[in-house]
Amino acid sequence: MSINNHIGRTVQLTVERLAEFGYFLSDGQEDVLLHKNETDKVLEEGQEIEVFLYTDSKGRIAATTMLPEITTESYGWATVSDVKQGIGAFLNIGIKKDMLLGKEDLPVHQSVWPKEGDLLYITLRVNRNNRIYVKVATDPIIEQMSVKATRQDFNKNIHGHIYRTAKVGSWIYTAEGFKGFIHESQREIEPRLGEKVEGRIIDVKEDGTINVSLIPRKQEALDQDSEKILSYLISRNGAMPYSDKSAPDDIQDRFQLSKASFKRALGRLMKEGKVNQEEGWTYLKEEK
Predict the structure, then answer these.
(1) Which of 2, 48, 89, 167 is packed most tightly, with the most Cβ within 10 A?
(2) According to the model, what pLDDT value does residue 221 have?
(3) What pairs with residue 92 in β-bridges?
(4) What sign does the dihedral 189-191-196-199 (CA atoms) show?
(5) Are 15 and 45 in contact (CB under 8 A)?
(6) What predicted TM-score, i.e. pTM, was given to this entire model?
(7) Residue 172 domain boundaries
(8) CA 60, 65, 66, 71 torsion-angle sign
């Protein structure tokens, strides 16, 4: 079989001859270069060596002794190393050359493109020009590797990574191995592809998949809302022109909170003796 047909895979080749800049490896019919920068091994002619074949930036087939878990025949988790507008996301699979997830395989809206450090479950694909690209795992692949949740898992806190995103919701694979769905009504903002999110299980379905909410529990939300108001007060030296009489639109614009959430958080701060209101303003009480 031609070396071309092994791009993106790990293969066993023989050291055909030595060169100043590395080694030429052969399958008995074709040669491929193993550059000295791509190995920490000292090789001899006739020695058999296991390498991963890829295409370099100029489209030439090259070899490396760094053997990635992710190939055209296997899936694995890869970290996003860079994102370039109009091109796509680059992922580190464990070799020196990062692999491209092209913009055509990413969400339409760039706001949900992955960012550096996000994790994606991927495999590799080779196009007609022998270029290697990233392919994100589809639903059936995630289904194969997932474990079924039980009713005992209901209401548990979970965390995991988004593996698919759409207007209607987001799909998550959790640390426990659960496959889940986050309806658009159960997220305050749409998470990115590959983003790590935390939430809770709000339903366990008959097939063992879960429904997840990313909206904080009431007490957690109240804590966050109160902290948001306090932080704003401190940034304004303890006084702000907002109170429980303020217009809902003004509150939304400033705090990204509903009027009801704002009033609950403000009421809590007043009850705790941290703030007081006067003529449409709210003031931070000085600690005695």
Answers:
(1) 89
(2) 67
(3) 79
(4) positive
(5) yes
(6) 0.75
(7) 146-213
(8) positive
